[in-house]
Amino acid sequence: MAILPEERRKKMLELLNENGSVTIEELARRFGVSEMTIRRDLDKYRRVGQVKRCRGGAVLRGDNVGEVEYQKKISTNLETKQRIAAYCAGLVTEGMQVFLDAGTTVFYIARELLAVPGVTFLTNDLKTALFLSRHRREVILLGGHVQNSTGSAVGALTMEMVGRFRADIAFVGTACIDDAFDALTPTVDKAFFKRAIRQNAKDCFLVADSSKFHRSALVRINSLADYTAVVTDYRFTEEEKRLAEAKRIEIISV
After folding, report:
1. In the chain, pLDDT over 90 holds for what percent of residues?
2. N or C: which end of the chain has fewer CB within 10 A?
């Protein structure tokens, strides 16, 4: 069954965010439309600066964030992620129920939390779940469709599970943060999941190193003001500090 043009274009952009590039032939076959139709769709995104056309297809512009392979992210900004993790672990006390979002910064938080006894962990990240399980910690895995590039579960099943649990505290990551201090992600499923974590935890902390700021992605998750606080190494300008204060965003600098 043919899908509506707007839905097709949205799915095209999601594929670009996930893979970094697409070919016209591949897209025409996937969506059952002509290559000319795909060229017009890609030109629409080129005109607004979201993609760059190349011979036979298109690539994502460098200032738009897509999904990055887990192994590439795990060693990026390592020292900063460890500082963020150490601070966050200090917020957790014995016997708490803790939501851990997918992502490498949150994985380092999981490592730090091995020192805190009696914690029950809830996560959709397979690597984090396996790591904690190997260390004999109590883990509830929020299952669903596994995104191969990141090793995290997303989709309807994941959403159903996360809605059944309540946590004392949650740690959530983001692909990027734009100039308006909104958190964004490349995929719709992740946006819904991260919002659900926020709704089902008493306190929810966004963790983001400085590389995440002043960038853009396809889907808005929420405002930084929706979190208990943002834990980051980013150094805000005076103007940004005034904006954060006006939006009632709590910043914790590490």
Report:
1. 62
2. N
CB atoms within 10 A of CB 92: 18
Least confident of 13-27, 118-132, 174-188, 207-221: 13-27
Listed residue (187, 183, 211, 196) closest to 84, CA to CA: 211
Q: At what angle do helices 104-112 and 126-134 cross, to 10 degrees?
A: 20
Q: Encode pLDDT of 193-238 as tens digits.
A: 999 999 999 999 999 999 899 888 889 999 999 999 999 999 999 9
Per the rule left: phi > 0, alpha: psi between -120 and 50, beta: everything else, 221 is: alpha
- Please, what is the end-to-end C-alpha distance for the chain in angstroms? 51
Rama region for 202: left / alpha / beta (φ>0; ψ in -120 to 50; rest)? alpha
CA distances from 190 to 9, 23, 72 (A): 19, 25, 19
By three-state DSSP, how is residue 107 classified? helix
**Backbone phi, psi, residue 28, to 5°:** -60, -40
User: Which is it for strands 182-185 and 120-123: parallel, antiparallel or unpaired?
Assistant: unpaired
Looking at the DSSP bridge assignments, the partners of residue 230 are: 206, 251
